[in-house]
Every structure is written in structure tokens, then in C-alpha cells.
Amino acid sequence: MGFLNVLHIKLRQQTVVKLQACIRLLKKLEDICLSSPLQPAQSNLYEGKVILAPMVKLGRLPMRLLALKYGADLVYTDEIFSQQLKHCTRTKDDRLGLVNFTCGDFHLFQTCAAERKKVILQMGTNDPDEALEAAKLVQNDVLGIDVNFGCPTPNAELSQTGAFLLNRPDLVVQILRKLVNNLSVPVTCKIRVLPDIKETLELVRRIESTGVSALGVHGRLRVERRNVAVRVNEIKAITEAVSIPVIANGGSLEYINTFDDIIHFREKTNSLSVMVAQSAIKNTSVFRKNGVLPIHKVIQDYVTLVS
């Protein structure tokens, strides 16, 4: 075989190798693009914040406005199920300045301009497509969408939502990725810790990979209630395992009675933000930097907002 023929064969082999390398690179780029959100994660929205936590039947508009009045940076709605929300009709009440999402005669979600840039709608769901349909309906009226993977109630077990999805991490990832990749607002979720810390850390790393902007963590197991001590060390371990903001939750029983206590709990858990539930029910002025108000004053303020 002549020299030119040998050279031609070697050049052709090198070309094939380079093409194969290019194909592998393109495949990696394709995977990155498919897993990347349409909108960049807005993690800074969830840094250094004190937050009204989502609470069943309590996180309605008056409670949210009261928390904002006293100094909360962000407020979460009570859990709203995607199965109901997707059937709602959006209407405006110009006289009262309200935006209503109504199912029949029932206002499933109400909001107003005063909370427009501070309200996060928490959604209960177990279906990625249904979650997206519902979230698209409200995304122009809220700051962000949060998915509830933390609720441990019998209703959550019956509907297989909330904390009962934590043993189905593939579905958790599918739901979050569907929302992150198709919404124009930040997406977050709230979880509880698992019995095995290694499984918890594996789960939160998978959650982070979806592109969510922050992660809320209730420091208790699904079977534990607020009479059980919050697992501070587990929350701290999660903050060290992910780079997105972690929002610590569950400290009301032992730690939080004042605004200063909120900051102390944030430092103790190494989190970037804290969400408060039970202490806000006890006295919503817990968000005031200048100290809590007498409960009769809080009641007066609440009645004023309702009326």
C-alpha cells in the first residue's frame, strides 16, 4: 500500500474519531438544554426572608395581608389542589380591588395588588400536566409557585399528595421539572425530612437538579407532629448539600416567639430564610422587628382587614 493511501486512511480514521467526539458533545449539550428551565432560577428572591408558611384553611388573603403589615417578606397561600384550580375562572372585582379564582360560587383563591409581588401560591398535586395547567392559570397574579411535598394529613394520604410523594422521587422530579421548564415565575417546593438522612440528601440533590429556586424544609418526619422536637441538624445538613436557598420550617414550638427568635432559628439551622406557621397563628405580629403586639391589637387589625 502506497504512502498516500496509508495517509488517507489515517486521516479518515482521525476524522471519524473527531466526529464521534462531536456527537458525544452535542448529546451532552442536548441533555443540558432539555433539563434547563426557560427562565433562570431567581434564588435571591428567597434569601434573607421571613415568611408566612402555608397553612391549611388559614393562609387566606386577610391572614396574608396581616402578616405583610407586620413585616413578613413573603406569604404563602394555603394548599390549593391543581385538580380544583385548573377548573377555576379568573375574575376581577374592581370595587374591592380583588382578583378571584372561582369554582362555581366558591373563591378558591383571592389576591390583590398589595400582595402581588409577595404571594406564593402553594399547590397540591401528583400530576405534572395537571400541575402545569393550573399554574399557568395563576402565574400572572403571583410571585411564584410552590409544590407541597410536606403535608402529612389523612387527606394528603388519601389523594397521594404532599409528603406521601416523598417515596416517589421520580414523580417529584417530573412535576418540578415540568413547572420549571414551562412557567415564567420561580418554582419552589416544600418537603419533610426522611427517616434516613442519606435518602433525604439524595432527594434534595435531585430536587435541586430540576432548577427550582429554593427549597422549604419542615424539619420533621411525615409521621411526626409539632409536639416532636424539630430536627435542626437535618435541616443544617440539607443546607450544606445544596446550593439553592433553604427555607427552614418547624421551629415554632421550641424556638420562635419573637422576630429575634426567627433570626436565631435561621442561624441555628444555617438556612437562608425561615417560614413561620404556628407562632404566626398564636400572634401574627411575630414578624414585627420592634416586638409582638398585644393579642387584642392583632385581633383589631385582623378585623379591619376582613371588613
Automatic annotation (TrEMBL):
This is tRNA-dihydrouridine synthase. Residues 51-289 form the DUS-like FMN-binding domain. Its EC number is 1.3.1.-. GO terms for cellular component: cytoplasm. Gene3D superfamilies: Aldolase class I (3.20.20.70). FMN binds at P54, M55, V56, Q122, K190, H218, N249, G250, G251. Its cofactor is FMN. The active site is at C151. PROSITE patterns: UPF0034 (PS01136). It comes from Phallusia mammillata. Belongs to the dus family. One of its GO terms (molecular function) is tRNA dihydrouridine synthase activity. Pfam families: Dus (PF01207). Keywords: Flavoprotein, FMN, Nucleotide-binding, Oxidoreductase, tRNA processing. It is an enzyme of class 1 (oxidoreductase). The lineage of its organism: Eukaryota, Metazoa, Chordata, Tunicata, Ascidiacea. Catalyzes the synthesis of dihydrouridine, a modified base found in the D-loop of most tRNAs.
